[in-house]
Amino acid sequence: METPPLSSLYQQLILEHYRNPRNKAELEEKSVEIHMANPVCGDEVRLQLRIQDDQIEEAKFVGQGCSISQAAISMMTTLLQGCSLADAKILAECFTKMMQGDPDAAKDKRLKDLRVLQGVSKFPVRIKCALIGFDALQEALKTHAREETS
Amino acid sequence: MTTATLDPATIRREFPALEQSINGRPLVYLDNAATSQKPRVVLDALQAYYENDNANVHRGIHELSRRATVAYEESRAKVAGWVGAAEPSEIVWTRGTTEAINLVSTAWGLDNVGEGDEILISVLEHHSNIIPWQLLARRTGAVIKYIELDEQGRWILDELPRLLTDRTKVVAISHVSNALGTVNPVKRVAAAAHEVGALVLVDGAQGAVHMKVDVQELGVDCYAFSGHKMCGPTGIGALWARRDLLDSMEPYQGGGEMIHFVGRDESSWATVPHKFEAGTPNIAGAIGMGTAIDFLSGVGMDAIAKHEHELLEYALERMNAVDGIRIYGPQSPDEHSALISFTLGDAHPHDISTILDSEGIAVRAGHHCAQLAMQHFGISATARASIYLYNTESDIDRLIEGLEQVQGIFA
Fold it and tell me: What is the pLDDT of residues A9-30, one digit of tens each?
């Protein structure tokens, strides 16, 4: 399979987030923390959320990895500040669909800057990099829901 | 007699997989430490075996079984010769280096290592020479100690007299590091280990591939290696161990082929090496590995080592001139096997690998199954370019061009 041009992968906004990640810090008061790692390539994230009344009050992360994984997590956390749990779930599902190549998902304006990562879906070995942050988010939402009901 | 030099252009024609383009550029394959490409003679040998001689070994009385058995055992003799074994029965076929190490850590380890005993390995080891020993330590209560690394990824041996004690039962070390390319002073450590009565096992996955290995000269007890890194098929490898050691060990797995007589309560074992080869083996793989050895012998290991060394010197010189590069491992080519582990500016190794791939250049990016070595340098990953007999100066030039692309994108 022919690889599409690199310009569809390494967009300036991605490199900018990689070098200046937003919300990269430890959260002091957190309701949930999820550690996710890809043992194949070493990408790693600890996603921390403070949740109150079904709303994400604050989202921060600590992690390391390639430009794609770190930029995706950085962009994701900017959208999660003040986001309702229901909207966060929709965001995660929509982004995952975009990574699976769904063209409609890629047009969803709710993804905002995250849409620059659409090009990653054409690089099959890198899709996991883009998804690691949202995988952690989905895990965090599930964990939170379990803790709420117990 | 082998010739002193080799012509990579001629050799390349023997490798069908090298004759392709990736992303519109001729493939530059620099991921040889992961697995090598296969010459046509090896592919033909696999096909010929299945087309003409396919039968189970050491079982049937019929003609096909005889042919398969002869070819299989001839390959064992070739492998024995390859590492300087005293006799072919000192070679046990395995799936690869990993299984060979697990065989020793289990079959020998469980009977010879006890609570409070010590296992000495190095921080440089591949996970396949760490985890089997951690599993053994967990089951026996033994303690693992480590040979530490200096800033160039070389063993610090000043501490060796303190690390080796009368509790040291086994020293398990790599011949050549897959993560950094360090050629380790195995002989020196083996001699010291024997002074305290420890068994010495060598992970030779990156050793027997690039250089002539003589286990007698190295003075070790076990040497584990894989076929697929030396032009052979995947799923086949070998354990060399001293005959008296193999004789003293209990079987690793039970099944067909490894028995002498089976009774209701007690059974007896076949002689070495069959005692360790339960079940139908990878017959085609064994024959393919024998053919790979014929191929490499035909080219000449001295010629291969010389070619790789020259290419390594060229690559080190050109790569050292790249702005923002950091090369891990020994600076001197004489302590360095033909692989270069590096990072470039703030570009993550995966990004380096993706950009190089878009130019048709295959390198490895990641921790190389050597997380302890990565931790030593405080990093999580490197990019790794590894050289073999068919690589050329032009491959290195293409790599440098690719690295310039990386610099452009991450400028």
Answer: 999 999 999 999 999 999 999 9
